[in-house]
Amino acid sequence: MTLRPEQAKALIEMVMGTRDQEMTCDACLADVAAFVEVQLTGKPLTDALQVVQEHLDRCQDCAEEYHMLRQALEALAEED
Q1: Please, which residues have CB within 8 angstroms of residue 45's CB and are 6 or more apart in sequence?
Q2: Which of 7, 21, 49, 55 could link 3 by a cystine bridge, Cβ 3.0 to 4.6 Å?
Q3: SS3 assignment for 27-61
Q4: CA quadruple 72, 67, 20, 44: dihedral positive or negative?
Q5: Does residue 69 contact residue 42 with C-beta atoms inside 8 Å?
Q6: Half-sphere exposure of 76 toward its Cβ, with a 13 Å CA cutoff?
Q7: Can you tell me the distance from the alpha carbon of 56 to that of 60, in angstroms, rounded to the nearest whole number?
Q8: What is the pTM of this model?
């Protein structure tokens, strides 16, 4: 199987963007509430929460969970 140049480039970028130890979806979802809280308060991300951001950038399923939680918390804040 031969890759087209754009496919090879995308594959290389994905490999270069990996870490020695990737965050799992379970670990990401365990930290997503803290991540949302930090974002809503405008505080800077800690190194641990930066890893959550990186996972969300790559994982559509976790990103959807994050967006739903953020929308819910924003709606609750508007009610107060």
Answers
A1: 35, 38, 53
A2: 7
A3: HHHHHHHHHHHHHHHCCCCCHHHHHHHHHHHHCHH
A4: negative
A5: no
A6: 8
A7: 7
A8: 0.70
DSSP string, 58-78: H-HHHHHHHHHHHHHHHHHHH
CB atoms within 10 A of CB 15: 8
User: How far apart are alpha carbons 21 and 30 in whole angstroms?
Assistant: 17
| Assigned token pair, 71 | 């929308």
Burial degree of 47 (CB within 10 A; 0-12, 13-18, 19+): exposed
